[in-house]
Amino acid sequence: MPRYDEIGYWSEVKLDIISKYASAYSTIMNKQKSIQSYLYIDAFAGAGVHIKKQTLEFIKGSPLNALAISPAFPEFHFIDLDGDKVDKLRQTVGDRRDVLFHKGDCNEVLLVEVFPRCRYEDYRRALCLLDPYGLNVNWEVLEKAGEMRSVEIFYNFMIMDANMNVFWRSPDKVQTSQVARMDAVWGDHSWHEVAYKKTPGLFRDMEEKTTNEAVINAFRDRIRKVAGFEYVPEPMPMRNSKGSVIYYLFFASPNRTGAKIVKDIFDNYRN
After folding, report:
1. Contacts of 32 (CB under 8 A, 6+ apart)
2. Nearest-CA neighbor of 44 among 91, 109, 99?
């Protein structure tokens, strides 16, 4: 039996944002006569339902929301590392030719099995949700998606995980394994120059921790300039019940129209 994730208000906001855009995306793609097919990809699909913290009631997760969109996506790919959750989702969805389930690490599954199905030159497109539980998405995934020019992504940068495990006030005390994890997410070690600034000390320069905003702005620039996504609206900070930012919801696209729609959705919730 899979363990269902408990979610709060901001996670419900995220689900609403993604559903709104996925509906607009499918409507637009459905009218494009040149497009052969388009995919909905959920790289951390889970069991398909969540538990609402305030009431303990079940609510639909992103896979079930996506399956209810009209016009329907021609093809769905649901991925999760937890095999029990994949089995539960498969049981809930049932056998459908348009739905493919993948048990495994999305960093491998996306690059090897799923992204090759939505190549630009094949007139195929995709909307990909990267909604990890921590710093679990390797930079290669973002870079490949940007290079393909056929994939739009929602991506959660887990700033709370980074602050708890990597961005310490004393960087020399951070575990080597955590540094390696951040390197994998960022694509190299240049995050260190972003997360810390040097200030003159009595005997040597001191490293002082910078702000969440400095890190997020640098990552946004990296998605544009290194991964090659032309349009990356200002990300949406998602908070816990105490008001602390847990993660930033990014959207990245090669398409001006998609970015404008998402910016309007983000601004609506921001306000």
Report:
1. none
2. 109
